[in-house]
Design brief:
The protein is globular. The chain is built from four helices and 16 strands. The chain is mostly beta strands and 293 residues long.
């Protein structure tokens, strides 16, 4: 019996054998990464960021792409620091207008994209905060932010970012939402996001993660997105987005940049914002946001 079992096992093992192509790290191909998010805010810098992706296995800063020629609708962007190109001071985009981005690298590589700025989907009238807890689930301090305003009667998409004293959350910690919970309605005290303030995050990202104190100014910005840019950000969220974006490169993320071996997105977004000055950092949650008193 033992002599019979051994040949059968060998036959089964041979039948289940499949050729597996294990790619090595040297098979990696780098991509040009284009991060171009322009707005209608003339008081804010308008930037195009160019970098190159790195291998998934590498733990290194992204190589920034210097010396490129960057323009939007014929307006030249100047290289402020390596890989970061800025529009002339006071430049802003206009809702409903179409914009064309062109990028030319010193090695002759060319890529371009075209998109139209959507009309604002939300009118943000006010923002307010409330203290929501301390030392809970490893979070040093937590505040909740609520908004007041009016949503347009269309399906709209937003990216929410929060700043403290002009220092805003990094790109990967912003929030992307749709308006299914308040579509077309007046919004009164809608709890939209939170401020998670920790010492470790402040050390890494700056004062946007400081503990709130009397006199601090909290600002919330809502960028109206087109559906394609919303889908792009959603895909990035599942890929583990980092700063700059696409490092290391995620798989199967959409792009609207035309060119060979290029990733990223070109978007133009109207912005609405509101601010509140902190009077009592530990203002009770229910008394302020739910009763309005």
């Amino acid at each position: 019996m033992k002599k019979l079992i051994l040949p059968i096992l060998l036959l089964l093992l041979a039948a289940c054998t499949e050729l597996v192509d294990l790619r090595s790290r040297s098979d990696y191909r780098d991509y040009l990464c284009v991060q171009a998010i322009l707005t209608d805010r003339a008081d804010q810098p308008q930037r195009v960021i160019l970098s190159r992706t790195v291998s998934y296995y590498e733990d290194e800063d992204l190589p920034m792409v210097a010396g490129a020629s960057v323009s939007v609708n014929g307006v030249d962007f100047t290289e402020a620091i390596p890989g970061v190109y800025e529009a002339p001071e006071g430049y802003a985009c206009t809702p409903g207008e179409t914009y064309r981005l062109q990028v030319d690298l010193p090695d002759g590589t060319h890529c371009e994209s075209e998109t139209t700025m959507p009309v604002p989907g939300f009118r943000l009238d006010a923002v307010d905060y409330a203290y929501a807890g301390n030392k809970a689930k490893g979070i040093d301090s937590l505040w909740t932010l609520a908004i007041w305003g009016q949503d347009a009667p269309t399906d709209d998409y937003y990216r929410i970012t929060v700043g403290v004293n002009g220092s805003f959350y990094p790109f990967q910690l912003t929030e992307t939402i749709n308006d299914k919970y308040f579509n077309g309605n007046e919004v009164k005290g809608f709890l939209i996001t939170t401020l998670m303030q920790t010492a470790s995050m402040r050390k890494r990202y700056g004062d946007c993660f400081k503990y709130l104190e009397t006199g601090d100014v909290v600002t919330l910005e809502a960028l109206t997105l087109d559906k394609e840019y919303y889908d792009f950000l959603t895909a990035l969220a599942f890929s583990g987005v980092s700063i700059p974006i696409l490092s290391p490169q995620p798989a199967n993320v959409p792009t609207n940049i035309r060119g060979e071996h290029v990733l990223g997105w070109f978007a133009v977004c109207p912005v609405t914002s509101a601010s509140v000055t902190v009077d009592d950092p530990f203002r009770p949650y229910y008394r302020r946001l739910l009763t309005g008193s």
